[in-house]
Every structure is written in structure tokens, then in C-alpha cells.
Amino acid sequence: MSQLSHSEITALFLALGLLLASARLLGELARATGLPAVLGEITAGILWGPTVFGSLFPQWSAFLFPLSGGGALAFDGLITLAITLFLLVAGMEIDLSTVWRQGKVALYVALLGMFFPFAFGFMAGWWAPGLLGFQQGAHPLAFALFMATVLSISALPIIAKILMDLNIYRSDLGVVIIAAAVFNDLLGWLVFAMVLGMLGVGQMMPLGYTIGMTLVFVLLMILVMPLLLNQILPWVQAHSSWPGGILGFALSFCLLAAAFTEWIGIHAIFGSFLAGVALGDSKHLNERTRTTIEQFVSFIFAPLFFASIGLRVNFVDNFNLLLTLIILLLAMSGKILGSTLGARLGGLPLRESLGVSFGMSAQGTMGIILGVLALQFELISQEIFVSLVVMALVTSLLSGPLMQRVLRLKKARRFVNFFPPQGFILRLDSRDRWSAIHELAKLAGPLIDKTSEEITRAVYAREKMMATGIGQGVAVPHARLPGLAAPLVLVGLSPAGIDFDAPDTTTAKVIFLILAPQDDDGVQLEILADIAATFKVAEIREKVGNVNNYVEFLALVRSARGQ
Amino acid sequence: MSQLSHSEITALFLALGLLLASARLLGELARATGLPAVLGEITAGILWGPTVFGSLFPQWSAFLFPLSGGGALAFDGLITLAITLFLLVAGMEIDLSTVWRQGKVALYVALLGMFFPFAFGFMAGWWAPGLLGFQQGAHPLAFALFMATVLSISALPIIAKILMDLNIYRSDLGVVIIAAAVFNDLLGWLVFAMVLGMLGVGQMMPLGYTIGMTLVFVLLMILVMPLLLNQILPWVQAHSSWPGGILGFALSFCLLAAAFTEWIGIHAIFGSFLAGVALGDSKHLNERTRTTIEQFVSFIFAPLFFASIGLRVNFVDNFNLLLTLIILLLAMSGKILGSTLGARLGGLPLRESLGVSFGMSAQGTMGIILGVLALQFELISQEIFVSLVVMALVTSLLSGPLMQRVLRLKKARRFVNFFPPQGFILRLDSRDRWSAIHELAKLAGPLIDKTSEEITRAVYAREKMMATGIGQGVAVPHARLPGLAAPLVLVGLSPAGIDFDAPDTTTAKVIFLILAPQDDDGVQLEILADIAATFKVAEIREKVGNVNNYVEFLALVRSARGQ
């Protein structure tokens, strides 16, 4: 049995560990500055790849990320598995009923939002392939179709993430965008399957066969399979150990679907994506099982895949500004024009139509995945690949802020954003609410350049109007202060409990002092809502008594709400 | 960049999907008949390997499980990752403080339980290597040390599982066994690291270096790292998104530790095991994060690894009865003798000492993992490998029943074990408790060959003594019946709710009718406790109104308690 050598295993694990650690680290940094995490993850790969690390330390790079041999093959297998599992999760996020429910508008947005960039891409790819960096020897029709697809496909996971960040994922507008994106992606993958078929990637069967079987497979997976799974999943869960039975079933189902689509000549990820759609649609897939799969895949396998993108090419040497600008222009103009038109035809007002189109314009993940495949099959050059990655990064970057601007949205603000390390008292000395407020106000004074008396007075005034114990052991004394630039949140813990006259008669063991600017734009209410939601989680209330310092308190409250 | 070909990817995914599905299926079958799941998982691999599938369909086998080429290397990389992650989870299950807390007894059991089989194995391997199938060319001292280690190491994951099944995991006796097994495994791995070093597996550094660095690494990971992690983990969780930050950190930590131990000349799994010990010991590793890792690894990666064992050799051709019996005898006699002696010296009575020794005698997983490595490095022949796997299977099989017998334990019985498909009414017609009992009794009659009147009478009599509404929407009318061979549980749902006079004044929406034999050995109480525990889970109470049939009801209640 062929086996990896000792040094290949060493290199493989070291490479995986370094890639994962740096991808997650830069992903977190990206988030901290308000950018999508995927940007940081891709950047980590670019740093480790031939662009930076590879050109600085070519020998180390050859050891860690070998281009050939057993280590390279094992790495390729792992990354293929990673992207296949990521597509499973992306598929699971899709709610097919949403697609049908939002009906007319979503359909218009999807069709027109797809048609324009598709047409732009196809025309450019067909009539001016040189402009797009077409290289001799590639299949001209496949190339034009590929350019059309990659410019018209959207980035479902990124879009979903942006909508969640903006707090409009479940709103009518959010549902329109998601439904349109789902429809868009399904169509895009179907066209891409045809492209792969044309390239004879399968080589196992003729093109007509591939396309026919793809269509049958798609219909089977989105129409028949959800019904079957509604019978199968409860049966599996009823007759096997939990959650092993259902996890094993879901993953084998995904792997077999992936093997099938790979076999009929389109890529494995197409099968796992549809397996995800079918599984995700079943109300019988337990929420906890879903979470286990999603978390492990999203935070382990996905970062590894996105980081691996940067290992493939040198992003400096292959950067072609003109090509990148052309691709960016075609993609964004087509998508925004088409989607706006579609939303208007569907009856939305102009401003909302523009919002929808900006939402649809994020073309990150899926475009890159197609690009990776096209690069592997030598359909596109490294220059186009780099341009596609840059296009994906730029559109994903712009989408959120543009939508926010045109729809006049604000990101939901969390209390942790305004809670400095100096604003924490592990054990309040106070035994009643008035002195507790004063104790926290003394801490707040220097942080905002006010006297503690001024703060105390404002908070007392508010507290006298109505007590601020909100129950479940939490109190939220607060006030607006003139001349404050940003909100400030302080926390004091009181193991003994302090009476804040809460409706449920519990004493408060966690006391928040919330100071907001005088011209409050609603931030105070958002902070209060965030605190209430955080302490609704029983686990948080139970464990808050065990924390020993600011960092542990922060770690605990962060785990209450995924963010 | 070397990449897997289209047909290699097809074969890889197909092989993974088939292996996972069959391993989980046979694993579930094994559990259903009361055996450890790992037995079924290993059997699945033997069926797919050269023993059965490979000799029946050699061409298909060569396609699915190639012995060389890119597919084989990618598969090897994945399986190596799988076992590395499994050892991370095995390490996370270890609670170092337990080891120190149970002090004397555990230490005696560990040391003597290790010493005897180690001595037996070493003497046999050194003075009579021929008897153990020593093959020319192997390193004699390494061989003797390997036999000693493999016969003396215990199977922590299996032992933990058996103790949980017997419901004594948290009992004093259970803690002694676990603590001894942990100590045993740590020692065993240390010796095995030396064996690997002797074989020059590392080839990167001399043996003295390997042993020295191993010792330093072990001390670092079990003494220093837990303290460091208690600082680092809250910090990571406080400053990153949840649960992405902590998941990414834990997995990169594991991969880097694995790369390190592989580099210093011992296997990657040693590093991930210790990384798991260090991580698992931290109280700051959130329970949900832990669960995500454990579930994904235990139910996806572990079955793949255990199934892959059977792919390595032909278990029929290489089966040597004499060798197997010798190994079995040495392993069990040494372990049981040593552990019993240790427990007696530690002050336990004879019966409990025997129980401890039977608990320690499960030598499944770890032994096999060592065997796989030894086979790879050609230290042992295929015949010994087969004998080791059989020994592991047999000892794991015997351990539970022997312990049960000598400690006079019973497995906890669950109501689902006595709840037939015919015993379910989706919507009770009844509006009061007396007619509800009668309605369920009519259903029960034919199932146990009694008239419904007889049943009704007995249950009414009990119900009149005291109402059986236990609150939270559940009622449990019950009775003992003469001549009943086994308990019977029936369930009726009542969306409108029926008053069973519960202490919390809720009406019952789920009514259990529980019929137990006259000479009840406590099963009725166990069933009642199980029902109460199941419906303590809020999610179960919320969702029980949505089930549409028996299978969905069963699926729901199974998910309440992992089993």
C-alpha cells in the first residue's frame, strides 16, 4: 500500500496547522475591522504561497507546500474534500421553500440579474477573448460560457453572511435577495456543469449524457429527494444512536453524491452542494446536528480551502490591472443593472431595487471555486485566475457598505463593542443599587473625562423614574450624557446580589452601567436588547458567577450569541 | 502542482462514502445487539478489504481501494488525519485531575496492571520471539518492547464507553478504572515513542534526542500547557468570533503538536493525543465547542479509521489460531492478574478488584493503532497484526459482560426498548384520564395476550391511589401485571391535553402507559426515570406536538439523550 513518508506527514501536518492558524487569525482580523472573514483567509494563503513566503524562502516553501509527490497529492485530496464539505454546508443553508415563496420578485431579480452579466461575459468571451486573456488551445465556446458563468454567479454564503450582519436576513428584502441568489446559483452550476462536460473532463461519457444526467440528478435532488429524506431521516434517527446515526448518514450521502457527479463528468462539489440542498430542506435534520456539521466545516475546512487558493499562483507576477478592471466592470455593471431592472419589474421601489442589486453583486466564493476548477483544467490562465480572485474580493467588500448606504441600514451594535477592559469590577463592594451605580460611575469618570458626580446624578435621575432591574439577575442602570462621543458600557459583578427592583424579584448579580451620547441614535436601545438577549441564555447566567477577570467575562458573553 | 485525476477523485469519494456508510451501519447493528460500535466498524472494513470484497471483485477493489498511486496516497493522508483527530478527542476525554485525585488505588492498578502484561509480553518477545511470529530482519529489542507495550496498553475510549453504558462512569470504581487507564496509556505511549525512535523512524535525529524531546514534550503538555491554556483560551474566545476562534485554535494546536511529534521521530498521533489532554483539561473549553469536535470526529473520522484497518490485510489468509491464542492469553492474563493485584493492594475488596481488572482488560483501539504503525514500519508481520486486531476485538467484547457479571450490574434500561410501533396513538380521542387509559389499554391487550379490561382495571387501581401526572405535560399511568414476560410501553398524544392532576397543574399532552411484570426487578422505576429525564429537555417538549407518526416520535425522543 503506498504510504506517505515520515517527512511528508510532518510537512503535511505542519502546513495544515500553519495554514489553519493563520487563516483563522487573519479572518478574525478582517472581521474585527468590519470586513468579511473570507478576505482574511484568502490573504493568509497569498502570504504563504508563491507570492510572498514562496519567493522569500523557496526551500522551506518546497518542503511545506510541495508541488509534486505524495505530500502534494494528499494535500490536494484534503483540499478537495474540504471544498466538497463546504459546498455541503452552503447547500444546507438554502431553504428551497423560500425560493418559491418570494415568487415573482425573486424570479425577476434572479433571471435578469443573471442574464445581464452572463450576456456581457459571454459576448466579451466570445467576440473579444483576447481582451479577457484567452489563451491559445483552450476551447472557445467553453471559455465564453465559463466567463459568462463566473461573472453571473453570486456568492451565496457571503451574501447570507452580509445580510445577517446587517440584520435583514429574515426581512422581506433579505428573503428576495437570498431566493434570487439561490436560483442564480442553481442555474449557474448547471451551466458550469455543461462547460465541464464540454471540456471532456469526465472522459467517461459523451457530453449529451453528462448534461442529461446532470439535469435528471438536479431534479431528483431538489424535487424527489427532500420528500424521501423526510421519511428516511426520522427513520435513521429513530433506529440509531444519536447523533452518530444521522451524522454518518448525512456525510455518506454527501460523499456518494459527490462521487456520482464527479463520475458523470461534472465536479464532486456539485453533488455535495445538491446533497446539502436536499438535506437542509428537511425539517427532520435536527438543529444540533446541523450546527455540528456547519461549525466544524465552516471553521476548519472552509478556511483551509480559502487559504489554499493563494498557494496556487503568484498574485503579484500574474496581476494584470487592465484585465482585472475589465472583469470587475463587466461583473458589477451586469449584475447591478440586471438585478435593479429585475427588482423594478417585480414592483419594488428604486431605492430598494438598488439595495437588492448591491446585495446580489457579491461574487466571492462561488466564482473562486469555479476559477480553481477552470485553472486546474487549463481553461483559463493564471492571470485571469488572479483577476477573478481580486474581483471576488472587491465585490464582496463593496456589497455590504453599498447596501448599507442605499438602504440606510445600520449594523446591529453589541455592548461588547463599547466595553473597555478598565470598565470591569469583579466584585462590587456595594450592597444597594445607589452605591453600586456610584461605584461604577467612579470607574467611568476618567474614561470619558467627566466627574463621577455628574455621571451618578444623571443615572440616579433615570433610575428614580423607573428601576432598571430587568430580571434573571441583571440590572441595566443607564443615562444619556451631553458631550459624549461614543457609548460606554461598564460591568460590575455582585455575587451576593443587589436589589434593582426587578419584575421577577431576583436580585441583580450582573450590573451594567450604560452611558450613551445625548443625541442617541438608538444605540442605547440596541445595547439594552443585546444584553437582554445575551442573558436569556441559561448557560451564561449559570456561569457568570465563575469568571475571574475581564477576559473570562468577555469570553463567556461572546459565546452566548454567534458573531 | 500534482493533482488527483478525475477518476482518482471519483474513486476516493466513492470509497469514503461506502466505507463511512457501511461502518456506521454495522456499528449501529453492533450496538443494537449490545456490542461496542467499534466492532461493527472494523468488520465493515474487513468486508471491503482483501478478505471478502477484494477477493471476490479484485478489479473493483483495485479501483476503489488502490494500493498505489495518487488515490492511495490521498487516502493514506486522510486516514492519518482521521486517526490524529481521533486521538485528539481521546485525549480530550481525559481529566488529569481525576488521575491525581483517585491517587493510591489508581496508581497501584495502573502500575501493576501495566507491569504484568508488559513483563509477559517482553519476556515472550525477547526469549521466544518465534512463538510470537517474529520475522527475520526486525529489530529484536524493538520487537520485544513493542509486544510488551501492545499487550499492556489499554483502550481508553472503549473503556470509557463501557463504563458509560454500565452507568458507573462517575462512580468511585469507574474513576479508579479511568484514572488507571489514563496513566497506563500515557506510560504506554512513552514506551512506544521509544520503540519508534529505535526503529529510526524519524531518521531526522538520533534516538537519545528523540527520547529526550519526547519526555520534555510530555511534561510540557501535561504540566505547563494546561496552565497556559487557561490563559489563552479565554483570551481567544474573548477576542474572536464564536465558536470559530476557539475551534480554529484547538485544531491548529492539535495539527502543530502532531507535526512536532512526527518531526522528533514519534508518530503524529502522540502529539495530537497530548494536545487533547492539555485542551480537555481546561475548564475554559466551552462544552458546546467540545461537543462539536467530539461528534464530528467520533462519528465521521473515527469510523473511517477503524474501517480502514480491515483494508490492510487479508484476515482469513493471515489468521493464525495458535498465535492469536497466545497473544490473547498473554494480554488478558497479565492485565487481569496485575490489575486485580493492584486493586487489592490499593485496598479494594476482591470482587471490586476483579471488576476493576475486567474493566482494564479492554485492549481495543490503542492496541490496533500501535499495530497499524508497527505494520507500516515492518516491525511485525501481517499474521501478528491480524492476531492483535482479533485480540483487541475479543478483549473489548468480554470486558463489559465480565464486569457486569462480577459487579452484578445492570445496564440502564430505556423506555424505547419496550415501545413497539403498534403501541403509538397519534391523537387520543379521549378527553379525560380514565378513558385515555382505557384507550391505550385496548391497544395493549393484543400485544400481551390480555383483555383490555384486565389491564384497565390494574391501571385504574394504581391511578386511584395517586394521580400519575408528573408535570411538564407528561403523564405516566402504569401497573404491574401477573404473567407478563417483559415490560411494555405505549404512548398516546393529546394535543388538547388531558388533566392527570399533575403537581404543576399542566395538562398532559404525552401519555405513557407502562405495564411491567409482576416480579418487577426495578425496570418500572428505570423507565419512569428515563421518561422524566427525556422530557426535562425543553426542545423535546416543544417539538413533540409536531410529530406525525411513530417513527418521528421515536426520532425525537432519541435525540434527547445521547445513546
Automatic annotation (TrEMBL), chains A, B:
Membrane topology per record: Multi-pass membrane protein
Matches recorded under PROSITE patterns: PTS_EIIA_TYPE_2, PTS_EIIA_TYPE_2_HIS
All copies of domain PTS EIIA type-2, residue ranges: 417-560
Transmembrane segments: 64-93, 105-128, 140-163, 175-201, 207-229, 241-260, 296-315, 321-342, 354-377, 383-403
Keywords: Ion transport, Membrane, Transmembrane, Transmembrane helix, Transport
Localization (cell): Membrane
Biological process according to GO: proton transmembrane transport
Keyword Ion transport: yes
Matches recorded under InterPro entries: Cation/H_exchanger_TM, CPA2_transporter, Na+/solute_symporter_sf, PTrfase/Anion_transptr, PTS_EIIA_type-2_dom
Protein name, UniProt field: Cation:proton antiporter
Protein source organism: Pelovirga terrestris
